[in-house]
Amino acid sequence: MEYFLTEEQQMIKELAAKIADEKIAPVAIQYDEEGKFPHDIVKILADSDLCGVYIPEEYGGLGGGVLEMALVVEELSRGCAGIALAFAGTGLGAFPIILFGNEEQKKKYLPDIAAGKKLAAFGLTEANAGSDAAGIQTTAVLEGDEYVLNGTKQWITNGGEADVYTIIACTDRNKGARGFSAFIVEKGTPGFSFGKKENKMGIRASCTRELIFENCRIPKENLLAREGMGFIVAMKTLDRTRPGVAAQALGIAQGAFDAALKYSRERVQFGQPISSFQAIQHMLADMAIQIEAARSLVYQTCRHIDSGAKNISKESAMAKVFASDVAMRVTTDAVQILGGYGYMKEYPVEKMMRDAKITQIYEGTNQIQRNIIALELIKEASGKK
């Protein structure tokens, strides 16, 4: 379908697709098996000027928005969702600085992120604070001109590989969620270390580690916005990055569909390609319908956000839920179409099925997203009465 992308957006999408086809897809299975972080692919993205598509021009980026980020994530994920996370996870870590950083912070951190010289990460989740983000225990205490951080963040994408981390910590326990604040912490800061690399079901080319803070001292200038704004920083950031998860799911689904369609035309049973059987045709048709519907919702949600709309939580959640559920259904059907071959690691669809699952979980489970959607619907209906 024609989505009326600008010439620049179309070029971004085509360049990301070229990198996915030529550089990512050929190594996807190997990187998955080895759990290898894609430093070489990051360099290719940097050399192609894709790392800064969503970063303002005055800080070295291309001046695009959420849609440009989603276009890149979608195409890279079609090749490998785990490899794509080096880019997408950096967006998640950079958006708090883009949205809430002061001029000095933006000038210090964004140009290197835009140039691909540094990766970023976002530290919100903890062992006892997943869906209940308000339950975080990591603390930040102001002592003179420094904040002292103590605590542990869990399951952090780009953990250990990123250079810049945006961290949500508690500065006033008595204020609940209003007592949280956001900070920028640099890799190499004394007292900041990493846990083991997690052994995951999918997205195995992406590094997921604990972030450990033990009397980690950072200058008070590293506070984002002001004290007590941490929860707002986190929620506003996630509203803008959940479409990135949706785009990742969309790319996975498209990759699985492409593989299933190709296989159905090559696999011969009972003297004819299995694509000639109505059972397979209906599966392919349903897969294509779901993918196109997801793409329409994701792109329009991104445009809605980039237009400057203030209330975007519902739409962002809808895109994430729908696209990730589509990815799970499409990859499952792709494995079914390939049959026994689909279950084997020599073929890409079993990996895509494993990769798809996390899109229903991280950046807010789909159950939590449905809560958000319903509450927003009820709030809107109440306002109309």
Describe this structure in words.
The longest helix has 37 residues. The chain has 11 helices and 10 strands. Helix 5 packs antiparallel against helix 7. The protein folds into 3 domains: 113 residues, Acyl-CoA dehydrogenase/oxidase, N-terminal domain (Butyryl-Coa Dehydrogenase, subunit A, domain 1, Orthogonal Bundle); 108 residues, Beta Barrel (Butyryl-CoA Dehydrogenase, subunit A, domain 2), CATH 2.40.110.10; 154 residues, Butyryl-CoA Dehydrogenase, subunit A, domain 3 (Up-down Bundle), CATH 1.20.140.10. The protein has a 4-stranded mixed beta sheet with strand order 1-4-5-8. Strands 2-3-7-6 form a 4-stranded antiparallel beta sheet, covered by helices on one side. A two-stranded antiparallel ribbon has the order 9-10. The radius of gyration is 21 Å and the shape is globular. The protein is an alpha+beta fold and 385 residues long.
Largest sheet: 4 strands, mixed
Distance between the termini: 38 Å
CATH class of the largest domain: Mainly Alpha
Q: Regions with pLDDT < 50 over 5+ consecutive residues? A: none
The structural domain count equals 3
CATH superfamily of the largest domain: Butyryl-CoA Dehydrogenase, subunit A, domain 3
Count of helical stretches: 11
Which radius of gyration do the C-alpha atoms yield?
21 Å
Under CATH, the topology of the largest domain can be stated as Butyryl-CoA Dehydrogenase, subunit A, domain 3
Run of helices and strands = HHHHHHEEEEEEEEHEEHHHH
| CATH hierarchy: architecture of the largest domain | Up-down Bundle
Beta-strand content bin: 5-15%
Quaternary organisation of the protein chains: single chain
- Going by helix content, strand content and strand pairing, the class is alpha+beta
Helicity range = 40-55%
- In round numbers, the mean pLDDT is 97
Shape: globular
Strand order of the largest sheet: 1-4-5-8
Q: Give me the count of strands.
A: 10
